[in-house]
């Protein structure tokens, strides 16, 4: 029994040493040959035999062989289960802790019982956001935390400030996004807007609308009300 345990321990140690040596080889070869990959966040085995996942810049995924002789950029698909493994991996890496969002820097829209939760980052000059907002009107029993995220133009910032400083933020927002009624000029402490931009950059939110669901999953881009309903039904806080 003792011999068996010793043999198992030795085998485990050898595997660990081998894995570390493999990772070192991959890091060395890729770093020398591709300067952009000099700083690799993580090297790990992928579900495909002989293929290793390379993670850089926090959330960028590449694949390579055991020696770092080849580099693959693209999606790894599990054909049996019909799953996009790369997309799933990126979704996990970019997930946001919903409960940690600074809701004081958003205004809140409650429909119906408001039990389901959704956070949205939107630019008031985003055409896709306007289309999304019109679709979103049909989604009920939801609490929406709206983060003004002006990244398209200086005018986006001006409109965001006027909406944020309006007496009724929700009305000013929907008047503009749904009914094309320009927000009236207003002034107040609009520091929340700058903080939203900083928050978005921190979490690499590069486009609008970006949706964050209660389970931390995100959707970059406008989706239909039906798709919002599906994700609200499956997302659990």
Brief synopsis:
With 237 residues, this protein is α+β, with helices and mostly antiparallel strands. Helices cover 40% and strands 19% of the residues. The chain has helices spanning 2-33, 85-94, 127-136, 154-164, 169-177, 191-202, 225-234, and strands at 42-45, 52-56, 60-64, 71-72, 77-78, 83-84, 107-111, 116-122, 142-148, 210-213, 218-220.
Describe this structure in words.
By secondary structure, the chain is an alpha+beta fold. The protein has 2 domains: 2-94, Disulphide bond isomerase, DsbC/G, N-terminal (Nuclear Transport Factor 2, Chain: A, Roll); 98-234, Glutaredoxin (3-Layer(aba) Sandwich), CATH 3.40.30.10. The chain is 40% helix and 19% strand. It contains 7 helices and 11 strands. It has helices spanning 2-33, 85-94, 127-136, 154-164, 169-177, 191-202, 225-234; strands spanning 42-45, 52-56, 60-64, 71-72, 77-78, 83-84, 107-111, 116-122, 142-148, 210-213, 218-220. The strands form 3 sheets. The protein has a 5-stranded mixed beta sheet. A hairpin with a 6-residue loop joins strand 3 (60-64) and strand 4 (71-72). The chain is elongated and about 65 Å long.
As laid out across the biggest beta sheet, the strand order is 7-9-8-10-11
CATH topology of the largest domain: Glutaredoxin
Please give the count of helices: 7
Helix content: 25-40%
State the low-pLDDT regions, or none.
Answer: none
Number of strands: 11
Name the CATH architecture of the largest domain.
3-Layer(aba) Sandwich
Largest sheet: 5 strands, mixed
Indicate the radius of gyration in whole angstroms.
Answer: 23 Å
Structural class: alpha+beta
Query: Which overall shape is indicated by the principal axes computed on the Cα atoms?
Result: elongated
Q: SSE string, helix = H, strand = E?
A: HEEEEEEHEEHEHHHEEH
Number of structurally distinct domains:
2
Distance between the termini: 47 Å
* The CATH top-level class label of the largest domain: Alpha Beta
Report strand %: 15-25%
What is the fourth-level CATH superfamily of the largest domain? Glutaredoxin
Mean pLDDT: 91
């Amino acid at each position: 029994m003792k011999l068996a345990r010793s043999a198992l321990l030795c085998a485990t140690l050898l595997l660990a040493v081998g894995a570390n040596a493999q990772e070192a080889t991959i890091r060395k070869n890729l770093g020398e040959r591709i300067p952009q990959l000099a700083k690799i966040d993580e090297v790990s085995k992928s579900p495909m035999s002989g293929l290793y996942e390379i993670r850089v810049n926090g959330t960028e995924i590449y694949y390579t062989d055991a020696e770092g002789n080849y580099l693959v950029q693209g999606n790894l698909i599990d054909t049996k289960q019909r799953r996009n493994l790369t997309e799933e991996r990126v979704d996990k890496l970019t997930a946001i802790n919903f409960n940690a969002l600074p809701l004081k820097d958003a205004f809140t829209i409650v429909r119906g019982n408001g039990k389901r939760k959704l956070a949205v980052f939107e630019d008031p000059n985003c055409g896709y956001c306007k289309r999304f907002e019109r679709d979103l009107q049909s989604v009920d029993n939801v609490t929406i935390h709206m983060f003004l995220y002006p990244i398209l133009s200086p005018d986006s910032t001006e409109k965001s400030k006027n909406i944020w400083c309006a007496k009724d933020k929700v009305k000013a927002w929907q008047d503009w996004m749904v009914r094309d009624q320009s927000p009236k000029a207003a002034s107040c402490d609009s520091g929340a807007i700058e903080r939203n931009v900083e928050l978005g950059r921190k979490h690499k939110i590069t486009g609008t609308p970006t949706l964050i669901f209660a389970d931390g999953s995100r959707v970059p881009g406008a989706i239909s009300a039906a798709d919002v309903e599906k994700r609200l039904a499956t997302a659990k806080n």
